[in-house]
Amino acid sequence: VARVVGFSAEHELTGLEFCAGIPGSIGGAVWMNAGAFGSEMKDVVTEVTLLDADGQRKVLKREEIVFSYRRTVLPREAIILNSRLKLEKGDRRQIQNKIKEIMQTRQGKHPLEYPSAGSVFKNLPGIPAGRIIEETGLKGKCCGDAEVSLKHANFIVNKGKASATDVLALIGLVTDKVKKEKGIDLETEVIVIGEN
Prior knowledge:
By secondary structure, this protein is of the alpha+beta class. The protein has two domains: 2-108, 2-Layer Sandwich (Uridine Diphospho-n-acetylenolpyruvylglucosamine Reductase, domain 3), CATH 3.30.465; 110-182, Alpha-Beta Complex (Uridine Diphospho-n-acetylenolpyruvylglucosamine Reductase, domain 1), CATH 3.90.78. The chain is 30% helix and 23% strand. The protein has helices spanning 2-10, 26-31, 92-109, 129-135, 164-182; strands at 13-14, 35-36, 39-40, 45-51, 57-61, 66-68, 71-73, 79-85, 88-89, 116-119, 142-143, 146-148, 155-158. The strands form five sheets. Strands 10-13-12-11 form a four-stranded antiparallel beta sheet. Strand 12 (146-148) and strand 13 form a beta hairpin. The two termini are 28 Å apart.
């Protein structure tokens, strides 16, 4: 994602600035309908090429794709091979300034000093998941080297050598405590691959 945001700015193309600082690949960003600052991937995607479970290439136009909050309805076993994005011609300086502004906002709120997969849980309508997690006293809670960030409770950061098992255990602990104390079922924004 970072390379495409940088490429877009370099070539005076606007529309992807909201992706500045979002971890991962463009395929992952499309799959998750990544978004921030009032924009989402659905706003710029015009076409997606998939490899389906049978090994066949399939091209889907924007009208054939159902986007929702942090999800895109695509065949579960499919792999996104490429995506076509519609960006507008813009002013390089304005684009770079917007990216800088977004990154400063992220640095002030997000724990960018440690590796993470970004936001772990989906926000509820009008209620940020991080606030709910913070209200249950879980900031700083650890499983191995995985920690609920002290900076933003909706991030699980790797403070050293956290394993996937550590992260999954911490996700489970957070969901259980939030359910018990708040009666809220948090839904993960991240997708776990390779688990039943």
